[in-house]
Protein backbone atom coordinates (compact mmCIF):
# COMPACT_ATOMS: atom_id res chain seq x y z
CA UNK A 1 0.00 0.00 0.00
CA UNK A 2 1.34 3.40 -0.87
CA UNK A 3 1.08 6.45 1.31
CA UNK A 4 -1.50 8.95 0.16
CA UNK A 5 0.28 12.18 0.86
CA UNK A 6 1.10 14.91 -1.64
CA UNK A 7 4.28 14.31 -3.55
CA UNK A 8 5.65 17.85 -3.51
CA UNK A 9 9.29 18.39 -4.43
CA UNK A 10 11.68 19.34 -1.65
CA UNK A 11 13.09 22.23 -3.62
CA UNK A 12 14.43 25.74 -3.06
CA UNK A 13 11.50 27.61 -4.64
CA UNK A 14 9.65 26.81 -1.43
CA UNK A 15 12.30 28.67 0.57
CA UNK A 16 12.08 31.68 -1.73
CA UNK A 17 8.30 31.92 -1.73
CA UNK A 18 8.07 31.33 1.99
CA UNK A 19 10.59 34.12 2.69
CA UNK A 20 8.87 36.47 0.26
CA UNK A 21 5.39 35.78 1.60
CA UNK A 22 6.10 35.65 5.34
CA UNK A 23 9.27 37.56 6.05
CA UNK A 24 9.32 40.52 3.62
CA UNK A 25 9.83 42.94 6.52
CA UNK A 26 12.98 41.25 7.81
CA UNK A 27 16.26 43.13 7.35
CA UNK A 28 19.30 42.03 5.37
CA UNK A 29 22.40 44.10 6.09
CA UNK A 30 25.64 44.00 4.11
CA UNK A 31 28.89 45.65 5.13
CA UNK A 32 30.50 46.96 1.93
CA UNK A 33 33.75 48.73 1.13
CA UNK A 34 32.01 52.08 1.56
CA UNK A 35 29.67 51.34 4.45
CA UNK A 36 26.62 49.34 5.36
CA UNK A 37 23.76 48.72 2.95
CA UNK A 38 20.43 47.76 4.47
CA UNK A 39 17.65 46.11 2.55
CA UNK A 40 14.65 43.93 3.33
CA UNK A 41 13.66 40.45 2.28
CA UNK A 42 10.85 42.06 0.21
CA UNK A 43 13.32 44.21 -1.75
CA UNK A 44 15.72 41.30 -2.04
CA UNK A 45 12.91 39.10 -3.43
CA UNK A 46 12.12 41.61 -6.19
CA UNK A 47 15.79 41.62 -7.16
CA UNK A 48 15.83 37.80 -7.19
CA UNK A 49 12.87 37.92 -9.57
CA UNK A 50 14.66 40.47 -11.80
CA UNK A 51 17.79 38.35 -11.74
CA UNK A 52 15.77 35.31 -12.84
CA UNK A 53 14.72 37.21 -15.98
CA UNK A 54 18.24 38.53 -16.46
CA UNK A 55 19.66 35.01 -16.53
CA UNK A 56 17.28 34.24 -19.40
CA UNK A 57 18.30 37.44 -21.20
CA UNK A 58 21.96 36.48 -20.83
CA UNK A 59 21.09 33.17 -22.46
CA UNK A 60 22.30 31.07 -19.55
CA UNK A 61 21.27 27.51 -20.52
CA UNK A 62 18.56 25.61 -18.64
CA UNK A 63 21.03 23.97 -16.24
CA UNK A 64 23.92 26.37 -16.89
CA UNK A 65 26.46 27.00 -14.19
CA UNK A 66 26.14 30.43 -12.63
CA UNK A 67 29.44 31.10 -10.93
CA UNK A 68 30.00 33.62 -8.17
CA UNK A 69 33.26 35.25 -7.14
CA UNK A 70 31.95 37.17 -4.19
CA UNK A 71 32.16 38.01 -0.53
CA UNK A 72 29.28 37.38 1.85
CA UNK A 73 26.73 39.92 0.65
CA UNK A 74 23.03 40.39 -0.09
CA UNK A 75 23.62 40.30 -3.89
CA UNK A 76 25.39 36.96 -3.36
CA UNK A 77 22.21 35.82 -1.61
CA UNK A 78 20.23 36.93 -4.67
CA UNK A 79 22.35 34.61 -6.79
CA UNK A 80 21.99 31.86 -4.19
CA UNK A 81 18.28 31.88 -4.94
CA UNK A 82 17.84 33.02 -8.55
CA UNK A 83 20.20 30.43 -10.03
CA UNK A 84 18.65 27.28 -8.51
CA UNK A 85 15.06 28.55 -8.60
CA UNK A 86 15.37 28.94 -12.37
CA UNK A 87 16.85 25.46 -12.75
CA UNK A 88 20.43 26.69 -13.08
CA UNK A 89 23.28 25.61 -10.85
CA UNK A 90 24.92 28.04 -8.45
CA UNK A 91 28.68 27.56 -8.44
CA UNK A 92 30.45 29.42 -5.66
CA UNK A 93 34.11 29.94 -6.55
CA UNK A 94 36.53 30.15 -3.65
CA UNK A 95 38.19 33.54 -4.14
CA UNK A 96 41.25 32.45 -2.15
CA UNK A 97 42.24 29.42 -4.19
CA UNK A 98 45.40 29.40 -6.26
CA UNK A 99 44.84 30.84 -9.77
CA UNK A 100 45.47 27.51 -11.50
CA UNK A 101 42.94 25.78 -9.24
CA UNK A 102 40.32 28.44 -9.96
CA UNK A 103 40.87 28.09 -13.69
CA UNK A 104 40.68 24.31 -13.42
CA UNK A 105 37.45 24.47 -11.43
CA UNK A 106 35.70 26.99 -13.70
CA UNK A 107 36.61 24.92 -16.76
CA UNK A 108 35.71 21.63 -15.13
CA UNK A 109 32.31 22.93 -14.02
CA UNK A 110 31.85 24.65 -17.40
CA UNK A 111 30.79 27.92 -15.84
CA UNK A 112 28.69 29.97 -18.24
CA UNK A 113 28.62 33.31 -16.46
CA UNK A 114 30.57 34.68 -13.52
CA UNK A 115 29.24 37.32 -11.12
CA UNK A 116 32.19 39.15 -9.53
CA UNK A 117 32.37 41.68 -6.72
CA UNK A 118 34.08 44.80 -8.01
CA UNK A 119 36.61 44.71 -5.19
CA UNK A 120 37.69 41.26 -6.40
CA UNK A 121 38.32 42.24 -10.03
CA UNK A 122 42.11 42.40 -9.58
CA UNK A 123 42.06 38.74 -8.49
CA UNK A 124 39.54 37.57 -11.06
CA UNK A 125 40.45 39.40 -14.27
CA UNK A 126 43.90 37.83 -14.82
CA UNK A 127 42.16 34.42 -14.87
CA UNK A 128 39.24 35.32 -17.07
CA UNK A 129 40.82 34.59 -20.49
CA UNK A 130 41.70 31.04 -19.35
CA UNK A 131 38.14 30.23 -18.30
CA UNK A 132 37.11 28.67 -21.57
CA UNK A 133 33.35 28.41 -21.17
CA UNK A 134 32.65 31.75 -19.49
CA UNK A 135 30.60 33.93 -21.86
CA UNK A 136 29.73 36.81 -19.54
CA UNK A 137 31.26 38.61 -16.60
CA UNK A 138 28.81 40.57 -14.48
CA UNK A 139 30.33 43.01 -12.01
CA UNK A 140 28.58 43.71 -8.72
CA UNK A 141 29.47 47.21 -7.57
CA UNK A 142 30.49 46.98 -3.94
CA UNK A 143 31.95 50.46 -3.72
CA UNK A 144 35.48 49.58 -4.82
CA UNK A 145 36.89 51.76 -7.58
CA UNK A 146 38.73 49.19 -9.70
CA UNK A 147 38.26 49.94 -13.40
CA UNK A 148 35.71 47.84 -15.22
CA UNK A 149 36.72 45.72 -18.21
CA UNK A 150 35.15 46.81 -21.52
CA UNK A 151 32.85 43.84 -21.88
CA UNK A 152 31.74 43.72 -18.25
CA UNK A 153 28.04 43.91 -17.49
CA UNK A 154 27.00 46.06 -14.55
CA UNK A 155 24.89 44.03 -12.13
CA UNK A 156 22.60 46.84 -11.03
CA UNK A 157 22.01 47.97 -14.61
CA UNK A 158 21.28 44.38 -15.60
CA UNK A 159 18.67 44.10 -12.84
CA UNK A 160 17.18 47.51 -13.60
CA UNK A 161 16.70 46.56 -17.22
CA UNK A 162 15.09 43.19 -16.38
CA UNK A 163 11.42 42.86 -15.49
CA UNK A 164 10.74 40.83 -12.38
CA UNK A 165 9.80 37.24 -13.16
CA UNK A 166 6.12 36.81 -12.34
CA UNK A 167 4.49 33.83 -10.73
CA UNK A 168 5.95 30.89 -8.87
CA UNK A 169 9.31 29.33 -9.50
CA UNK A 170 8.93 25.62 -10.19
CA UNK A 171 11.52 22.89 -9.85
CA UNK A 172 9.70 19.59 -10.31
CA UNK A 173 12.59 17.22 -9.79
CA UNK A 174 13.92 17.61 -6.27
CA UNK A 175 17.03 15.66 -7.21
CA UNK A 176 18.02 18.26 -9.78
CA UNK A 177 21.32 20.04 -9.06
CA UNK A 178 20.94 23.30 -7.14
CA UNK A 179 24.51 24.26 -6.36
CA UNK A 180 28.04 23.04 -6.60
CA UNK A 181 31.15 23.60 -4.56
CA UNK A 182 34.61 22.17 -5.15
CA UNK A 183 36.37 20.48 -2.31
CA UNK A 184 40.11 20.81 -2.17
CA UNK A 185 40.55 18.74 0.96
CA UNK A 186 41.38 15.63 -1.04
CA UNK A 187 44.58 14.98 -2.95
CA UNK A 188 44.85 15.83 -6.64
CA UNK A 189 42.58 18.30 -8.35
CA UNK A 190 39.65 19.78 -6.44
CA UNK A 191 36.51 17.65 -6.72
CA UNK A 192 33.05 18.93 -7.55
CA UNK A 193 30.36 18.31 -4.96
CA UNK A 194 26.91 18.82 -6.46
CA UNK A 195 24.12 19.62 -4.03
CA UNK A 196 20.57 18.85 -5.08
CA UNK A 197 17.46 20.87 -4.20
CA UNK A 198 16.43 18.01 -1.94
CA UNK A 199 19.74 17.76 -0.13
CA UNK A 200 19.88 21.52 0.39
CA UNK A 201 16.34 21.78 1.67
CA UNK A 202 16.68 18.85 4.06
CA UNK A 203 20.02 20.19 5.32
CA UNK A 204 18.45 23.62 5.91
CA UNK A 205 15.55 22.07 7.80
CA UNK A 206 17.81 20.17 10.12
CA UNK A 207 19.70 23.31 11.07
CA UNK A 208 16.40 24.67 12.31
CA UNK A 209 16.06 21.91 14.89
CA UNK A 210 16.91 22.85 18.45
CA UNK A 211 19.65 20.25 18.72
CA UNK A 212 20.89 21.25 15.27
CA UNK A 213 21.66 24.98 15.26
CA UNK A 214 18.18 25.94 16.38
CA UNK A 215 17.74 28.80 13.91
CA UNK A 216 14.48 30.67 14.44
CA UNK A 217 12.60 33.72 13.21
CA UNK A 218 13.88 35.66 16.20
CA UNK A 219 17.51 35.11 15.30
CA UNK A 220 19.88 37.56 13.72
CA UNK A 221 22.30 35.42 11.76
CA UNK A 222 25.74 36.49 10.58
CA UNK A 223 27.74 33.90 8.63
CA UNK A 224 31.41 34.83 8.85
CA UNK A 225 32.21 31.54 7.15
CA UNK A 226 32.43 32.45 3.47
CA UNK A 227 29.51 31.77 1.17
CA UNK A 228 32.00 29.88 -1.02
CA UNK A 229 32.82 27.45 1.80
CA UNK A 230 30.11 24.77 1.59
CA UNK A 231 27.39 27.40 1.14
CA UNK A 232 28.41 29.17 4.34
CA UNK A 233 27.52 25.92 6.10
CA UNK A 234 23.96 26.19 4.82
CA UNK A 235 23.17 29.26 6.94
CA UNK A 236 21.93 31.57 4.14
CA UNK A 237 19.25 29.10 3.02
CA UNK A 238 18.42 28.12 6.58
CA UNK A 239 18.04 31.76 7.66
CA UNK A 240 15.62 32.44 4.80
CA UNK A 241 13.61 29.34 5.65
CA UNK A 242 13.43 30.28 9.32
CA UNK A 243 12.80 33.96 8.63
CA UNK A 244 15.84 35.11 10.60
CA UNK A 245 17.34 38.55 10.01
CA UNK A 246 20.72 38.39 8.32
CA UNK A 247 23.95 40.35 8.43
CA UNK A 248 26.64 39.81 5.80
CA UNK A 249 30.16 41.00 6.65
CA UNK A 250 31.28 41.61 3.05
CA UNK A 251 35.02 42.02 2.58
CA UNK A 252 35.74 43.26 6.10
CA UNK A 253 36.67 40.04 7.86
CA UNK A 254 39.08 41.58 10.35
CA UNK A 255 38.42 40.71 13.99
CA UNK A 256 37.42 44.34 14.64
CA UNK A 257 35.11 44.42 11.62
CA UNK A 258 33.43 41.17 12.62
CA UNK A 259 33.06 42.13 16.28
CA UNK A 260 31.60 45.56 15.59
CA UNK A 261 29.00 44.05 13.25
CA UNK A 262 28.10 41.44 15.87
CA UNK A 263 27.67 44.20 18.44
CA UNK A 264 25.88 46.78 16.28
CA UNK A 265 23.28 44.38 14.91
CA UNK A 266 22.89 42.36 18.09
CA UNK A 267 23.65 39.22 16.17
CA UNK A 268 22.39 36.08 17.92
CA UNK A 269 23.95 33.34 15.75
CA UNK A 270 27.30 33.52 14.04
CA UNK A 271 29.60 30.95 12.47
CA UNK A 272 33.21 30.64 11.43
CA UNK A 273 36.34 28.49 11.55
CA UNK A 274 38.43 28.52 14.77
CA UNK A 275 40.92 30.97 13.22
CA UNK A 276 38.23 33.67 13.17
CA UNK A 277 37.35 33.20 16.83
CA UNK A 278 41.01 32.92 17.84
CA UNK A 279 41.70 36.23 16.11
CA UNK A 280 38.74 37.91 17.82
CA UNK A 281 39.53 36.57 21.29
CA UNK A 282 41.92 39.31 22.50
CA UNK A 283 39.37 42.01 21.56
CA UNK A 284 36.23 40.45 23.04
CA UNK A 285 36.26 42.62 26.16
CA UNK A 286 35.80 45.80 24.11
CA UNK A 287 32.41 44.86 22.67
CA UNK A 288 28.92 44.29 23.97
CA UNK A 289 28.12 40.87 22.55
CA UNK A 290 25.30 40.09 24.95
CA UNK A 291 22.99 39.33 22.03
CA UNK A 292 24.98 36.27 21.02
CA UNK A 293 23.47 32.90 21.89
CA UNK A 294 25.34 30.58 19.52
CA UNK A 295 28.85 30.80 18.09
CA UNK A 296 29.04 27.97 15.64
CA UNK A 297 32.53 26.74 14.95
CA UNK A 298 33.86 23.92 12.80
CA UNK A 299 36.01 23.30 9.78
CA UNK A 300 38.78 22.19 12.09
CA UNK A 301 38.89 21.12 15.70
CA UNK A 302 37.98 23.75 18.27
CA UNK A 303 40.79 23.99 20.83
CA UNK A 304 39.48 23.47 24.35
CA UNK A 305 41.23 26.64 25.50
CA UNK A 306 39.34 28.62 22.86
CA UNK A 307 35.99 27.14 23.78
CA UNK A 308 36.63 27.85 27.45
CA UNK A 309 37.85 31.38 26.79
CA UNK A 310 34.57 32.22 25.03
CA UNK A 311 32.53 30.58 27.76
CA UNK A 312 34.24 32.50 30.53
CA UNK A 313 34.42 35.85 28.69
CA UNK A 314 31.04 35.91 27.01
CA UNK A 315 29.13 33.29 28.94
CA UNK A 316 28.49 31.62 25.59
CA UNK A 317 30.51 28.53 24.80
CA UNK A 318 31.41 27.79 21.24
CA UNK A 319 29.00 25.36 19.57
CA UNK A 320 31.17 22.78 17.89
CA UNK A 321 30.07 21.05 14.69
CA UNK A 322 31.77 18.78 12.20
CA UNK A 323 31.32 18.17 8.53
CA UNK A 324 32.79 18.53 5.09
CA UNK A 325 31.92 20.15 1.79
CA UNK A 326 30.84 16.60 0.87
CA UNK A 327 28.35 16.54 3.77
CA UNK A 328 26.69 19.89 2.92
CA UNK A 329 28.44 20.35 5.48
CA UNK A 330 26.73 19.85 8.86
CA UNK A 331 26.93 16.19 9.92
CA UNK A 332 27.40 16.37 13.70
CA UNK A 333 26.66 19.04 16.29
CA UNK A 334 27.88 19.05 19.88
CA UNK A 335 24.71 20.42 21.47
CA UNK A 336 24.64 19.74 25.21
CA UNK A 337 22.94 16.44 26.04
CA UNK A 338 21.09 15.18 29.11
CA UNK A 339 23.98 12.90 29.97
CA UNK A 340 26.28 15.96 30.15
CA UNK A 341 24.26 17.40 33.06
CA UNK A 342 25.85 14.98 35.51
CA UNK A 343 29.38 15.97 34.49
CA UNK A 344 31.62 18.31 36.43
CA UNK A 345 32.79 21.55 34.78
CA UNK A 346 35.97 20.00 33.50
CA UNK A 347 34.26 17.05 31.87
CA UNK A 348 31.63 19.36 30.40
CA UNK A 349 34.34 21.43 28.80
CA UNK A 350 35.72 18.20 27.31
CA UNK A 351 32.25 17.27 26.03
CA UNK A 352 31.91 20.67 24.34
CA UNK A 353 35.02 20.15 22.24
CA UNK A 354 33.88 16.78 20.98
CA UNK A 355 32.38 17.03 17.52
CA UNK A 356 29.04 15.78 18.81
CA UNK A 357 26.24 13.50 17.71
CA UNK A 358 25.15 13.01 14.13
CA UNK A 359 22.14 15.11 13.21
CA UNK A 360 18.92 13.30 12.34
CA UNK A 361 19.18 11.58 8.93
CA UNK A 362 22.98 11.38 9.04
CA UNK A 363 24.47 7.95 9.75
CA UNK A 364 28.06 7.41 10.77
CA UNK A 365 30.29 4.40 11.29
CA UNK A 366 33.89 4.00 12.36
CA UNK A 367 35.85 1.64 10.17
CA UNK A 368 39.27 0.07 10.50
CA UNK A 369 40.76 1.30 7.21
CA UNK A 370 42.79 -1.78 6.25
CA UNK A 371 40.32 -4.55 7.15
CA UNK A 372 37.09 -2.64 6.61
CA UNK A 373 35.88 -3.89 10.01
CA UNK A 374 33.21 -1.70 11.61
CA UNK A 375 34.49 -0.72 15.05
CA UNK A 376 32.49 -0.47 18.28
CA UNK A 377 31.36 2.85 19.75
CA UNK A 378 33.43 2.53 22.91
CA UNK A 379 35.29 5.85 22.58
CA UNK A 380 38.54 3.89 22.40
CA UNK A 381 38.52 2.18 19.03
CA UNK A 382 39.61 4.70 16.46
CA UNK A 383 39.21 4.38 12.73
CA UNK A 384 38.04 6.26 9.70
CA UNK A 385 34.67 7.86 10.04
CA UNK A 386 32.31 7.11 7.16
CA UNK A 387 29.08 8.94 6.52
CA UNK A 388 25.77 8.31 4.79
CA UNK A 389 22.66 10.44 4.50
CA UNK A 390 20.48 12.47 2.15
CA UNK A 391 22.85 15.45 2.16
CA UNK A 392 26.04 13.41 1.90
CA UNK A 393 27.70 13.21 -1.53
CA UNK A 394 27.31 9.96 -3.46
CA UNK A 395 29.85 10.87 -6.13
CA UNK A 396 31.92 13.75 -7.46
CA UNK A 397 31.05 15.69 -10.59
CA UNK A 398 32.71 14.22 -13.70
CA UNK A 399 35.13 12.33 -11.51
CA UNK A 400 37.98 10.95 -13.52
CA UNK A 401 40.04 9.67 -10.62
CA UNK A 402 40.31 6.40 -8.77
CA UNK A 403 38.29 3.21 -8.64
CA UNK A 404 35.07 2.28 -6.85
CA UNK A 405 31.47 2.19 -8.04
CA UNK A 406 31.14 5.94 -8.35
CA UNK A 407 34.56 6.43 -9.88
CA UNK A 408 36.36 7.55 -6.76
CA UNK A 409 38.12 5.76 -3.95
CA UNK A 410 36.43 8.20 -1.62
CA UNK A 411 33.19 6.21 -1.70
CA UNK A 412 32.81 2.64 -0.43
CA UNK A 413 31.30 -0.25 -2.36
CA UNK A 414 28.13 0.11 -0.31
CA UNK A 415 27.87 3.83 -1.03
CA UNK A 416 29.24 5.48 2.14
CA UNK A 417 31.52 8.51 2.04
CA UNK A 418 35.06 7.95 3.29
CA UNK A 419 35.74 11.15 5.16
CA UNK A 420 39.49 10.74 5.68
CA UNK A 421 38.94 11.72 9.32
CA UNK A 422 39.98 9.43 12.14
CA UNK A 423 37.60 9.36 15.09
CA UNK A 424 36.34 7.53 18.13
CA UNK A 425 32.65 7.50 19.01
CA UNK A 426 31.22 7.10 22.51
CA UNK A 427 28.21 4.99 23.38
CA UNK A 428 25.87 7.94 22.88
CA UNK A 429 27.14 8.37 19.33
CA UNK A 430 29.19 11.47 20.11
CA UNK A 431 32.13 11.77 17.73
CA UNK A 432 35.63 12.80 18.73
CA UNK A 433 37.83 13.51 15.74
CA UNK A 434 41.36 12.36 16.48
CA UNK A 435 42.91 13.70 13.30
CA UNK A 436 42.85 13.74 9.52
CA UNK A 437 44.29 10.41 8.33
CA UNK A 438 47.07 12.25 6.59
CA UNK A 439 47.91 14.47 9.57
CA UNK A 440 48.38 11.71 12.15
CA UNK A 441 52.00 11.36 13.17
CA UNK A 442 53.14 7.78 12.69
CA UNK A 443 55.62 7.14 15.50
CA UNK A 444 56.90 3.56 15.59
CA UNK A 445 53.81 1.41 15.18
CA UNK A 446 51.64 3.95 16.98
CA UNK A 447 49.73 7.08 16.04
CA UNK A 448 50.06 10.47 17.63
CA UNK A 449 47.11 12.84 17.25
CA UNK A 450 48.36 16.18 15.97
CA UNK A 451 45.00 17.68 16.98
CA UNK A 452 45.39 16.67 20.62
CA UNK A 453 48.95 17.95 20.74
CA UNK A 454 47.83 21.26 19.24
CA UNK A 455 45.03 21.47 21.76
CA UNK A 456 47.49 20.98 24.59
CA UNK A 457 49.92 23.51 23.11
CA UNK A 458 47.24 26.14 22.65
CA UNK A 459 46.23 25.74 26.28
CA UNK A 460 49.48 27.55 27.19
CA UNK A 461 48.63 31.17 28.02
CA UNK A 462 51.53 32.51 25.94
CA UNK A 463 50.67 30.47 22.84
CA UNK A 464 48.47 32.09 20.20
CA UNK A 465 48.43 29.26 17.68
CA UNK A 466 50.20 25.95 17.29
CA UNK A 467 50.32 23.29 14.60
CA UNK A 468 52.01 19.90 14.75
CA UNK A 469 53.38 17.99 11.78
CA UNK A 470 55.13 14.67 11.42
CA UNK A 471 58.77 14.84 10.32
CA UNK A 472 60.48 11.74 8.85
CA UNK A 473 62.61 9.91 11.40
CA UNK A 474 65.00 7.07 10.67
CA UNK A 475 64.07 4.91 13.61
CA UNK A 476 60.49 5.92 14.46
CA UNK A 477 59.22 6.62 10.89
CA UNK A 478 57.92 10.02 11.97
CA UNK A 479 58.20 12.23 15.00
CA UNK A 480 56.19 15.34 15.92
CA UNK A 481 57.48 18.83 15.26
CA UNK A 482 55.58 21.58 17.06
CA UNK A 483 55.26 24.91 15.22
CA UNK A 484 54.31 27.51 17.79
CA UNK A 485 53.23 31.14 17.58
CA UNK A 486 53.92 33.03 20.80
CA UNK A 487 51.86 36.01 22.01
CA UNK A 488 53.42 39.28 20.83
CA UNK A 489 55.85 40.63 23.41
CA UNK A 490 56.16 37.24 25.16
CA UNK A 491 58.81 34.58 24.84
CA UNK A 492 59.00 30.84 25.36
CA UNK A 493 61.74 28.24 25.09
CA UNK A 494 61.35 24.70 23.68
CA UNK A 495 62.01 23.38 27.19
CA UNK A 496 59.16 25.46 28.63
CA UNK A 497 56.86 24.17 25.89
CA UNK A 498 57.80 20.60 26.63
CA UNK A 499 57.40 21.14 30.38
CA UNK A 500 53.90 22.49 29.75
CA UNK A 501 52.99 19.45 27.64
CA UNK A 502 54.42 16.82 29.96
CA UNK A 503 51.42 16.47 32.29
CA UNK A 504 48.96 16.75 29.39
CA UNK A 505 50.03 14.07 26.89
CA UNK A 506 51.80 10.68 26.97
CA UNK A 507 55.57 11.12 27.22
CA UNK A 508 56.26 9.51 23.88
CA UNK A 509 54.03 12.14 22.21
CA UNK A 510 56.28 15.01 23.31
CA UNK A 511 57.49 16.83 20.19
CA UNK A 512 61.13 16.19 19.37
CA UNK A 513 61.51 19.81 18.36
CA UNK A 514 59.69 23.10 18.74
CA UNK A 515 59.95 25.79 16.07
CA UNK A 516 58.72 29.30 16.81
CA UNK A 517 57.02 30.86 13.81
CA UNK A 518 55.24 34.18 13.18
CA UNK A 519 51.96 32.68 12.05
CA UNK A 520 50.54 29.27 11.18
CA UNK A 521 49.91 29.36 7.42
CA UNK A 522 46.23 29.10 6.52
CA UNK A 523 44.30 27.41 3.71
CA UNK A 524 41.87 29.21 1.42
CA UNK A 525 39.13 28.72 4.00
CA UNK A 526 41.19 29.78 6.99
CA UNK A 527 42.26 26.40 8.38
CA UNK A 528 45.80 25.52 9.43
CA UNK A 529 47.64 24.53 6.26
CA UNK A 530 49.74 21.57 7.34
CA UNK A 531 50.72 21.07 3.71
CA UNK A 532 52.47 24.46 3.67
CA UNK A 533 54.17 23.69 6.97
CA UNK A 534 55.33 20.30 5.70
CA UNK A 535 56.81 22.02 2.62
CA UNK A 536 58.44 24.68 4.80
CA UNK A 537 60.05 22.09 7.05
CA UNK A 538 60.86 19.52 4.36
CA UNK A 539 64.24 17.97 5.15
CA UNK A 540 64.05 19.20 8.75
CA UNK A 541 66.80 17.68 10.92
CA UNK A 542 65.33 16.57 14.23
CA UNK A 543 67.68 16.75 17.20
CA UNK A 544 68.65 13.47 18.87
CA UNK A 545 66.19 12.92 21.69
CA UNK A 546 66.73 10.37 24.42
CA UNK A 547 64.42 7.53 23.40
CA UNK A 548 63.84 6.73 27.06
CA UNK A 549 62.01 10.03 27.24
CA UNK A 550 59.40 8.59 24.93
CA UNK A 551 58.83 5.35 26.80
P1 LIG B 1 36.00 21.20 4.14
O1 LIG B 1 35.40 20.36 3.11
O2 LIG B 1 36.96 22.20 3.60
O3 LIG B 1 35.00 21.84 5.03
O4 LIG B 1 36.90 20.27 5.06
C1 LIG B 1 36.35 19.18 5.75
C2 LIG B 1 37.34 18.68 6.74
O5 LIG B 1 37.58 19.64 7.76
C3 LIG B 1 36.87 17.46 7.50
O6 LIG B 1 37.07 16.27 6.78
C4 LIG B 1 37.73 17.52 8.75
O7 LIG B 1 39.03 17.01 8.53
C5 LIG B 1 37.84 18.99 9.00
N1 LIG B 1 36.83 19.39 9.99
C6 LIG B 1 35.66 19.97 9.77
N2 LIG B 1 35.02 20.24 10.94
C7 LIG B 1 35.83 19.80 11.91
C8 LIG B 1 35.75 19.76 13.34
N3 LIG B 1 34.72 20.28 13.98
N4 LIG B 1 36.77 19.21 14.02
C9 LIG B 1 37.84 18.69 13.39
N5 LIG B 1 37.99 18.70 12.04
C10 LIG B 1 36.99 19.24 11.31
From TrEMBL:
AMP-binding enzyme C-terminal domain residues are 452-527
- Please state every residue range assigned to the domain named AMP-dependent synthetase/ligase: 29-397
Q: Which Gene3D superfamilies match?
A: 3.30.300.30, N-terminal domain of ligase-like
Query: What Pfam families does the annotation carry?
Result: AMP-binding, AMP-binding_C
Q: Which UniProt keywords apply?
A: Fatty acid metabolism, Ligase, Lipid metabolism
* Organism domain of life: Bacteria
Can you name one GO molecular function term for this protein?
Answer: ligase activity
Keyword Chaperone listed? The answer is: no
- Alphabetized PANTHER family for the sequence: ACYL-ACTIVATING ENZYME, BUTANOATE--COA LIGASE AAE1-RELATED
This protein is called: Long-chain fatty acid--CoA ligase
Q: Which organism is it from?
A: Pseudonocardia charpentierae
Amino acid sequence: MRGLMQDRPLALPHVFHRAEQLFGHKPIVTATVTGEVATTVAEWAVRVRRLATALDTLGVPADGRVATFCWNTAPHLELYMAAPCTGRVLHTLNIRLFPEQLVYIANHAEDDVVFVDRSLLPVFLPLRSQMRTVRHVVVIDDGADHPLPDDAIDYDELLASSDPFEGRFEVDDENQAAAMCYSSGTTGNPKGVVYSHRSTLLHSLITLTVDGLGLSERDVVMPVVPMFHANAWGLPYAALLAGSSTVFPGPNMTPKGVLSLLERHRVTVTAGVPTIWLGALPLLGGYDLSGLTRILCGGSAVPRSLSEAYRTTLGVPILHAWGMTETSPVATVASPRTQDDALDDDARADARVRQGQPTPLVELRVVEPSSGEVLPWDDKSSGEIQAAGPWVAAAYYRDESGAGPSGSSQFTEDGWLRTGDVATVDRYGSVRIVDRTKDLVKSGGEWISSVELENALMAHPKVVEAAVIGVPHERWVERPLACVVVEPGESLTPEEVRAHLEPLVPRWWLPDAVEFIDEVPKTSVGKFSKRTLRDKFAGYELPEVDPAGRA
